[in-house]
Design goal:
With 75 residues, the protein is mostly helical. Helix content is 60%, strand content 0%. Helix 1 (8-29) packs antiparallel against helix 2 (32-54).
């Protein structure tokens, strides 16, 4: 992903909101230490997923074919 990728900043913003929401929920249910742990683990998950996509030699997961057997958007 480069800064010019369409929708990049929207995805970053949404992921940041998810991290904050997870941390706040854990803070309310479990306490401050656990809230930080959950927020940190959520952030780490996003970073690892991003790194997996940048690693050469790791194929992207295959998607199921579109219903009808055609190419997406064709027809």
């Amino acid at each position: 992903m480069t800064p010019e990728t369409p929708g990049l900043w929207a995805r970053v913003f949404v992921r940041a909101l998810v991290v904050v929401a997870a941390g706040v929920m854990a803070l309310g249910f479990l306490g401050p230490g656990e809230g930080l742990l959950i927020a940190g683990l959520t952030t780490l998950t996003y970073v690892l997923m991003w790194l997996r996509g940048r690693t050469p030699g790791v194929p992207e997961p295959r998607r199921a074919p579109e219903p009808g057997g055609g190419e997406p958007g064709a027809g």
